[in-house]
User: Fold this.
Amino acid sequence: MDLGLDGRVALVAGASSGLGLAVATALAAEGAHVAIGARTAERLRAARDEVDAAGRGRVMSTAVDVRDTGAVRDWVAEAAATLGGLHIVVANAGGPPPGLATDFDVEDYRDAVELNMLSSVALTQAALPHLRSAGWGRVLFVTSVAVKEPIPDLALSNTARAGVLGYAKSLVHALGDAGITVNVLAPGRTRTARLEQLAGDDTDEGLARMAADIPLGRVGEPAEFAAAAVFLASGPASYITGAVLPVDGGSYGGLS
Assistant:
């Protein structure tokens, strides 16, 4: 299937590692030009090399903190100017600390909303003029399966990422006539460096324990998540908007 991504311009936040890097690499492999951003310059340089090796399109990397709205605007403007427009935006950021709802104070919740919700709003708002100008756009939000079923010891993430979902659903109605789709990806347990760290000293044993209640019997791979993201960013996905797609091996069992 031709995904229609050859020559498209994609911007991926949180792309120095994990799910963001996997998505950026997969988009590059489909022929897209890719702008990647993350906070840590050293890790970003290594990520740029990996993305660049995946495809024939151009790649640019920018050290940016997605909580800095001005820096985000500058990054988006630079990417569009350098790569010749903008068609795909992937809003992504690391998760806040784990803990129960009563473990945190108001400032902790404010920080989580800044990191996961308001960063997504800022990135999208900066990108929308370019997507509208192109007459074709895809906005993807990377959240967590917690937007479908809150996880008790991830209270900050549950709260902030639910706000992303509300924003995304609202955008669907605002952008429907502009040729821009808006979708939410809700990953479950996926084998990133962070998950391996949480698995403990015996990584394989820890990951197996984490997978005990997953119907497919294992945690996911970043490339599997990236494949779902790339399809939603593609031409053939033009009639899918407002979707919340769990990529979780079947661990979410709800009917809606």
About this structure: The chain has a mean pLDDT of 95. Residues 183 and 243 are 5 Å apart (CA to CA). The chain has one domain: 9-192+225-247.
